[in-house]
Amino acid sequence: MSSHLLTLLVFASLVSVVFATLLREDRRPRFRFFLMSLGAFVLSAVVVGWLMYRFPS
Question: 41, 45, 52: which is closest to 19 by C-alpha?
Fold first, then answer.
């Protein structure tokens, strides 16, 4: 995988699946938690990456 965004999506999906499986009992709340955690992972990573882009290396 050469794209950081693709790697982020795969990692966030796998972690979200594990968290949703461990933390929710029923199917509907599990799926909703999966979507919310996936969105939170991706959004926070994009925001932090955007903030870090402003600083020179």
Answer: 41
